[in-house]
Specification:
Blueprint: E1 2-12, E2 17-26, E3 29-35, E4 48-51, E5 56-59, E6 61-66, E7 68-69, E8 72-73, H1 79-88, E9 94-100, H2 106-122, E10 130-137, H3 159-168, E11 173-178, H4 185-194, E12 198-201, H5 208-217, E13 221-222, H6 238-245, E14 250-254, H7 262-272, E15 277-280, E16 292-296, E17 299-304, E18 307-309, H8 322-332, H9 337-351, E19 369-372, E20 378-383, E21 386-390
Parallel strand pairs: 1-4, 1-5, 6-9, 9-10, 10-11, 11-12, 12-13, 13-14, 14-15
Antiparallel strand pairs: 1-2, 2-3, 5-19, 7-8, 16-17, 17-18, 19-20, 20-21
Helix pairs in contact: 7-8, 8-9
């Protein structure tokens, strides 16, 4: 099938924001694009979708940290759960994601990993969000900074156990949250780095010197900056301060205004620049559903007023949508839509080493495209060339 998008609004491309272009999609890919006035005559008969003036055409968002949505969770360890997430996420402009686990007993994590591997082999079709692999969040974290991670299942980093899990996952674990200050932590970070898995410092009580060693060992990311970590103190930079200081570290940010206040989002942008940040949702199964009590890692989470909380008041993930994340960061800081796209699409694609096929609107890449209104509501989403969501 060929599909021709006629764009009269703004299109955020790799090196420019273009007005009035055409994009030809064929066999899941972007086959051709250019200014509308250069549209070849033989394409004028192809099925066309007109994008009205005032709307924004951006590369699909990539969420590297998401537990669940629409009643489903990665830890449900079923094809149906991952399918539910993959079908729900295009409504917020997300076209790719990492299915994210939580600290749990080994059997539950292993079931989730085997299920993800099974899904990736036979169910990752176009027309829904593309699962790019697994983000293993826990159990190799610091109990002092557990947050909503179940304490009783936390263990020290274990290379041999990780090898077994990566085998069960058939190589699909792409990102691991780890506390490098723990016993075996630095060796574990080195092992991940040598095996092309991103080591992300999170749920960590590390001090600056330990963070410095983690970066030297190959840590490349920080999980949900400011949340579940030693904060900045004027006599000890901690994880959060080190995250802002080390250029080697890409930082995840939950831009819901609850996990991180707008003025702190602005501080992070000033310190890291758009090229050093990843927009994430860290959302749980209650996203897209009404207020109520939902499960996260075997714990009851109460969802009301946009917050997801454990019984003791601890934040337990979010119900944030990626398009709202983009809107919130644009309102918090003096940045352009291109900057927001850098954080929500370009950087995650580069970090996951899939920028050759994801993360920007470019000839030869997957046709993962999101259409946003001027209020950053999602009008339409294409996942590998198929309409996966259309408003109304």
């Amino acid at each position: 099938m060929s599909l021709l998008l006629m764009v009269h609004g703004k299109a955020v491309l790799e090196n420019e924001v273009a007005e009035s272009i055409y994009i030809l999609i064929e066999n899941e890919k972007i086959k051709e694009m250019g200014p509308i006035q250069t549209l070849p005559s033989h394409l004028k008969d192809v099925q066309q979708i007109e994008i009205p003036e005032g709307q924004n055409v951006v590369p699909g968002f990539i969420d590297v940290h998401i537990h669940g949505a629409a009643g489903a969770d990665t830890m449900d360890a079923s094809i149906e759960a991952l399918e539910t997430m993959a079908k729900a996420l295009p409504a917020e402009g997300t076209t790719s994601f990492l299915a994210t686990t939580i600290t749990q007993k080994h059997e539950n994590i292993e079931n989730a990993l085997k299920n993800a591997a099974h899904y990736l082999k036979g169910h990752n079709e176009s027309g829904k969000a593309d699962i790019l692999g697994v983000h293993l969040e826990g159990p190799f974290i610091n109990a002092k900074r557990a947050g909503a991670q179940p304490m009783e299942y936390i263990i020290n980093p274990d290379i041999e156990l990780f090898k077994q899990w990566q085998e069960l996952a058939e190589g699909s674990i792409k990102l691991v949250t780890v506390a490098p200050e723990l016993e075996n932590g630095l060796n574990f970070v080195s092992y991940l780095n040598e095996n092309n898995v991103i080591a992300s410092v999170g749920h960590s009580d590390a001090i600056y010197e330990e963070m410095k060693k983690a970066v030297q060992a190959g840590a490349k990311q920080v999980t949900h900056l400011f949340n579940g970590m030693r904060g900045i103190h004027h006599r000890e930079a901690g994880v959060a301060g080190s995250a802002l200081l080390f250029k080697e570290l890409m930082v995840e940010l939950i831009a819901d205004g609850i996990h991180v206040r707008p003025e702190v989002m602005k501080l992070v942008i000033n310190a890291k620049g758009p090229e050093g940040m990843l927009m994430i949702t860290d959302s749980m199964r209650a996203k897209c559903l009404k207020n109520g009590v939902y499960d996260l890692g075997g714990q009851d989470v109460s969802v009301a007023d946009g917050k997801a909380l454990l019984a003791d008041g601890t934040l337990a993930g979010s119900i944030l949508k990626m398009n709202d994340s983009v809107k919130n960061i644009l309102e918090a800081a003096d940045i352009s839509l291109s900057d927001a796209v850098q954080m929500a699409s370009v950087n995650p694609a580069k970090q996951l080493n899939v920028y050759d096929r994801k993360g920007s609107i470019s000839v030869g890449k997957d046709a993962d495209i999101t259409i946003l209104s001027n209020e950053y509501k999602v009008e339409m989403t294409f996942c590998r060339g198929e309409i996966a969501y259309k408003k109304g």
